[in-house]
Amino acid sequence: MSGFTPVHADVVTEWNEIMEQTALATTPDDPLLRARTASIAQLAVFEAVNSIVGDYQPYDVEVESPEGASADAAAIVAAHRVLSKLHPQRTAQLDAARDQSLATIPNSAAKTDGIAVGIAAADAIIALRATDGVDAPVSYKPGSEPGEYRSTPPDHTPAFRPGLGQVATFVIRNGRQFRSVPPPGLRSKQYAHDFDEVQRVGEAGSTQRPPDRTQVARFYEIADADSIYYPAARQVIATRSRTLSENARLFAVLSMAIWDSAIACFETKYHFNLWRPVTAIREAQSDGNRRTEPDAEWLSAVFTPPFPSYPSGHASFGGAARAVLEDEFGRDGHSITLTHPAVPDIVLRYTTFKQITDDVDDARIFGGVHYRFDQEAGALQGKSVGEYVLQHALRPACAPKHRKRC
């Protein structure tokens, strides 16, 4: 379980944590599938709650809901149904969690109606994403020329999800919409400067890496979007007076922004196909840049992910998440503690979302798996995606059920 302590402001935050735990337990080695689970589950929860409350414009369809239906029951059942469909191996645990959550709601027509709304909303979103192309086969041939990505030592894992950039998005038009500008040329001063930085501080045995940067490198090698930004959001929510509807919308927008930034990032990654630092450093004699020095035995401090370097995925989804969270909660004044069971000795504390993304940037460079320009491009891309999602999805309703003004 991620986060410092369980924080449950309501059933939306409760099931956000259950979603996080379920996805991590069943797809521990595929953060992209976890991001997909999150976006489908959180959007279903939003549609279920919003169909009853009506504070926001629906994403796809507004489920018919009887007057007085329980929004809490709808949220619980929507989350449970999506997670059970996507992760059937966890059905027993999910059924028990659903029953426990529903037991807090008195039996009534409102509860029964809410359950029906939750089922309908979940089924609609599951059907909508059934043909998103996430598992469509895509052929990919690694490069061999200077600057081109090829599998990395020591294990030479095959390229991961080369077709992800073509998978259906939620809000942005497609993965190409926010493609990053080209990375610096191999012979440029910027390339040499950032090459030198990662070569010095990112090597497994580097003596130039401060102990605290080693800690963040270890932590963010393990922690992905689901175990960073959802726990952070839950902790901030716990300090605020917020409605179920507001929280349902927040997690839906946050998860869609993270997913769409992942699509945009991987579209850019495989378009430019830039080699990772470990390859660049070992083969620097071929890059045509007199400022770079090869080191044939160089290895990164943390595991190098098996896909092209530019831009950074951590920076892209971090930029998107930060845009959403700062829009919702403001830039600073927070109290956020992040932990991860895989690195129990590390506890990270933050008061701003920027501190988190700054640590993520350092983690990937001091970990030896990214250049500084990877991080900068990813952050800009993610910010653009996050702002676009905020502007185009789940906006306040102009004529909601409670007749609020926009």
Attribute tags:
Vanadium-containing Chloroperoxidase, domain 2, 51% helix
State the order of secondary-structure elements, H for helix, E for strand: HHHHHHHHHHHEEHH
Overall mean pLDDT: 95
| CATH C-level label | Mainly Alpha
Strand segment tally = 2
Distance between the termini: 38 Å
Round the Cα radius of gyration to an integer and report it: 22 Å
Sheet with the most strands, sense and barrel status:
2 strands, antiparallel
Taking strands numbered 1, 2, ... along the chain, how are they ordered across the largest sheet? 1-2
Percent of residues in helices comes to 40-55%
Q: How large a portion of the residues is in β-strands, by DSSP E?
A: under 5%
| CATH-scheme architecture | Orthogonal Bundle
Structural class, from secondary structure content? mainly alpha
CATH-defined fold name: Vanadium-containing Chloroperoxidase, domain 2
Shape assignment: elongated
Number of helices: 13
Please mark out the parts with pLDDT under 50 across 5 or more consecutive residues, or reply none.
1-6
What does this structure look like?
With 406 residues, this protein is mainly alpha-helical. The protein has one domain: Vanadium-containing Chloroperoxidase, domain 2, CATH 1.10.606. It has 13 helices and two strands; from the N terminus they run H-H-H-H-H-H-H-H-H-H-H-E-E-H-H. It has helices at residues 11-26, 31-53, 71-86, 91-102, 109-129, 189-201, 211-222, 229-237, 244-272, 277-282, 313-329, 353-366, 372-392; strands at 336-338, 348-350. A two-stranded antiparallel ribbon has the order 1-2. Helix 1 (11-26) runs parallel beside helix 3 (71-86), helix 1 (11-26) packs parallel to helix 9 (244-272) and helix 11 (313-329) crosses helix 13. The longest helix is centred in the middle third of the chain and has 29 residues, at 244-272. It is elongated and about 75 Å long. The protein starts with 10 loop residues before the first helix and ends in a 14-residue tail after the last helix.
